[in-house]
Amino acid sequence: MSDTAELELGPLHDYYEFEHADEDFRAAIVDGLSQPQKRLSSKYFYDERGSKLFDQITELPEYYPTRTETAMLRAHAGEFAELIGPHASLVEFGSGSSTKVRILLDALETPAGYVPIDISREHLIESAKDLADAYPDLMVVPIAADYTQPLELPDIAGEVVRIGFFPGSTIGNFTYGEAVEFLRNAATELGTDNGLLIGVDLKKDIDILRAAYNDAAGVTAEFNLNILRHINRELGADFDLDGFTHDARWHDDKGRIEMHLVSKCDQSVDIDGHKFDFVAGESIHTEDSHKYTIDGFHALAAEAGWRAFRHWIDADELFSIHYLRVA
Fold first, then answer.
1. Which tens digits make up the pLDDT trace of 193-228?
2. Which ranges of the chain does DSSP label H, i.e. alpha helix?
């Protein structure tokens, strides 16, 4: 649904917003905290403050995914551009600051448009305007939405091909079933014969993984705790942020890092009339970050209706980028 009444579009060509009702957010939080293992969806990290904290994480020395993937994008930009072709529009799922996509835009021949999709409305608009200023001939149409839900993409004038862009190994935050569902929805939204360029983190030395999610500066811990701050602000909850501590755990059998917020003491939290009791040591599971093998990811993509066309791995075998086409 287009919603431009409150906005000065400036350099943006249009703006779309798919509303997600407050009741859905409230219901999701209450349901998650009512489970035997309390859970919160990682998508609720990304209010404006959370998005900026994540940008800080990507610059940390311990956090290898961003610098590795960025170097790979630069090294292979010409190959990506050749595969994609001219007059392409790029649809970025979970666009954040729209930083990596500039590498692609600089390499592409006469790109037709850029459609950033992000749940953090303010951060999205700010980033989209900055990018539109930098590329005045590019049609930039931001969409404020939960990109994990089905949505309708806008028409882009002059578009010959439509390519999805999903960097950062965000696919690892999904369960297997969620990943298949997202990729299946993306295939439908992008359309037959179109493609997806996606970053996928690889299985590797456990010490490298642990350090990446337990940085010395404590930024990841602050990012994790911000989800409680978000709930306090939006729902009038009374989480005591000093009463919880960040914990990132590697589970070899599940092939994933799990992030938790652990209660330091016995305590109770009230959310809109719902009371939740915590005992000391009890945790809220806030995020998974699955790590894949190449064959494992290709099998997942195939189940979702994609054909693995080509992939790249960095020299240290930390990270991979895949170009998929709708089967």
1. 899 999 999 999 999 999 999 999 999 999 999 999
2. 22-33, 48-57, 64-84, 101-107, 121-134, 176-190, 206-212, 219-235, 294-303
Answer whether 250's CB lies under 8 Å from 172's CB.
Answer: no
The parts of the chain modelled with pLDDT lower than 50 are 1-6, 21
Instruction: Match domain 1-235+291-327 to its CATH number in 3.40.50.2300, 3.40.50.150, 3.20.20.70, 3.30.110.30.
Output: 3.40.50.150
Kindly list the domain boundaries of the chain, sorted by start residue: 1-235+291-327
Q: Which two tokens stand for residue 18?
A: 């798919």
Give the C-alpha separation, 276 to 121, whole Å. 29
